[in-house]
Amino acid sequence: MDTLLDIVGITKSYGTTRVLDGVDLKVGRGQVIGVVGENGAGKTTLMSIFAGHQQADGGTMRLNNAPYWPKSTEDAQSRGVGIIQQDFTLDPAMTVAQAIFRNTYQADRPQRALIRPAQWLLDDAGVRLSPDSPLGGLAHAEQGLVEAVRLLAEDAQLVIMDEVAASLNVQELDQLHFIISRLTRQGRSVLYVSHRLREVQAVATHIAIVRDGRIPEVLDPLTVTTEDIAAHMRTRSARRAWFPDRLDEELTESVPEEAATFGAPEEATGFGVTPAPDHTPAPEHTPAPDHTPAPDHTPAPDHTPAPEHTPAPEAFGQAPAPMDASATSDAPAPVDAAQPAVEEPAAAADPAPGPSRGRRAMAADDGRNYDALGTDTPLLEIEGLDAPGAHDVSFTVRTGEVIGLTGPRHAGQDAVVAALNGRAPGTFRTLRINGYNRTINSPADAATMRIAYLAGPDEEAPQERRRSLARAMMAGGWADGSDFDTEVEGLSQMMSALEKLQNASKKLRGRRARRAGLPAVEAEALSGGQQQMVLLGDWMTQDADVLIVSEPGRGLDHDARAAMRAKLNEAAENGAAVLLVSSDIDELATSCRRVLVFDQGSIVQTIEGSPITHDQLMSAFATVG
Ligand SMILES: Nc1ncnc2c1ncn2[C@@H]1O[C@H](COP(=O)(O)OP(=O)(O)OP(=O)(O)O)[C@@H](O)[C@H]1O
């Protein structure tokens, strides 16, 4: 094998937490190495070291047979290493053409001079975007494709893609895979981080497992199943639990028991998720012939191995929002409680919308027997919705149903959701929730009507995500007896500036952590998947009637996705209607029995099945876009 990158014994710690514990890996020319591992396994940390964002504490790296120790991204680029970062952000004012050439000698040329070469690259890659489009008008997934085309324009020999596929739809995945094949045909190598295991199998020549701070195995994608890969990813100590609990466990693992006064019980398995067996390697694994598996790593003399992945005490202390609904049942509606516009009742006298407490809890107030309504009762009825990007959309979601909304980009599914959660204008010929006519003019209306919404990647500027995270992480503080009014006032002041928010949330979390006898953890210290867990956990605690979630599985590992699905089902079984907006066919097939396929602003197909198959969804996608 012609080796491009050869790393031995790479170590990296944050404080006293050792994240990488002696990683060995060889990357051959023209190979696509799928890099997989549980959330928080250290994949992004490792990629950041290759790309010069971070420096390793120890080990050796050689690129092209020469020592390699990049001090910065520019340094790495000059040596032929390019990266698309996880959760990258690009200047929204930049055009597609400018983004593609921004790291090349063409960077200073005027836009008009870039159009033709950009168009050529886009056409060659099969990406249907205009070189003139500003990035701000594109979905995050589309920007990811622009980033991939950028790598074609640059002459990076080692290309790193960290979770680029997280929210790509089938057509976009095809385009990405095509770009990857173009890169490898030119003799370049790709490190491809993804949690979509089936997709990794399709694109990778080798699958490197990141586990317990190392890469103990490299698998042949042709001889393993996705379940095998997931089994190889599991740490020996991993317990399968609902993700906030699991995160709680991770964050509190090394804290003395008496200090852990809040959070999940030791063995949190009450969410329909089976505890993982100890890691059992797939029996018939045969390494790919041309790959040289990493030898067992022998720790450097100065290396003190961390006992069984023990996170640093100072990285802990902040529990995510509690999952127990009873703990938050008195929590306020998540946005300012403006009165919703309520039209005359369609069925019965309309109860005054109160704080969000869930439909079963509400039953006592309005005299309706929600349990008797059964699971076939329409909970959300939409007729004739017109909104920017959606036209005359009608559908009904029954209580207890998890319904999928999908389609190509900008096909209408996001527009429907934006109108439903009050973030974009929409006119409904009829909107009924729980049998009552409603009007939604703002997010506050939606919240008061018990519609909870978790934003997808396109509505989530990094600042917004951090703000949501800070709020989610503070939510526990509201529930544990602190002065709610003071905290809300503090929150609204904090909203005025991210800087202020971060400082104040640090203090709040610090205070709360001190009460619990734990040190604080920063949102920034959580991996991408861990952040998504916290946000999902907070969203779930809103105890809403209508739960809308956009691309919930992005960034979550195989087991966390399974837990997330179990939790969505549980919410539905408890009487909610769940709207799952997703580009991920596997996620839709495993979560929904009905999927609405959008195209050009309308529902063009309704797929039903128990279960819905992957092929049904693939054929639907083949006819749209
Ligand atoms: N700046 C930081 N400070 C402290 N701890 C950090 C920091 N960045 C990451 N970590 C911790 O290091 C571990 C590895 O994080 P990393 O982002 O590399 O994981 P990952 O495998 O990419 O996870 P995911 O699949 O969720 O993206 C996590 O436990 C995370 O909490």
Automatic annotation (TrEMBL):
<keyword id="KW-0472">Membrane</keyword>
<feature type="domain" description="ABC transporter">
    <location>
        <begin position="5"/>
        <end position="237"/>
    </location>
</feature>
<feature type="compositionally biased region" description="Low complexity">
    <location>
        <begin position="329"/>
        <end position="351"/>
    </location>
</feature>
<keyword id="KW-0677">Repeat</keyword>
<feature type="compositionally biased region" description="Pro residues">
    <location>
        <begin position="278"/>
        <end position="310"/>
    </location>
</feature>
<dbReference type="InterPro" id="IPR050107">
    <property type="entry name" value="ABC_carbohydrate_import_ATPase"/>
</dbReference>
<keyword id="KW-0067">ATP-binding</keyword>
<protein>
    <submittedName>
        <fullName>ABC transporter</fullName>
    </submittedName>
</protein>
<keyword id="KW-0762">Sugar transport</keyword>
<feature type="region of interest" description="Disordered">
    <location>
        <begin position="250"/>
        <end position="362"/>
    </location>
</feature>
<dbReference type="InterPro" id="IPR017871">
    <property type="entry name" value="ABC_transporter-like_CS"/>
</dbReference>
<keyword id="KW-1278">Translocase</keyword>
<dbReference type="InterPro" id="IPR027417">
    <property type="entry name" value="P-loop_NTPase"/>
</dbReference>
<dbReference type="Pfam" id="PF00005">
    <property type="entry name" value="ABC_tran"/>
</dbReference>
<keyword id="KW-0547">Nucleotide-binding</keyword>
<keyword id="KW-0813">Transport</keyword>
<dbReference type="GO" id="GO:0016887">
    <property type="term" value="F:ATP hydrolysis activity"/>
</dbReference>
<dbReference type="InterPro" id="IPR003439">
    <property type="entry name" value="ABC_transporter-like_ATP-bd"/>
</dbReference>
<feature type="domain" description="ABC transporter">
    <location>
        <begin position="367"/>
        <end position="625"/>
    </location>
</feature>
<dbReference type="GO" id="GO:0005524">
    <property type="term" value="F:ATP binding"/>
</dbReference>
<keyword id="KW-1003">Cell membrane</keyword>
<dbReference type="InterPro" id="IPR003593">
    <property type="entry name" value="AAA+_ATPase"/>
</dbReference>
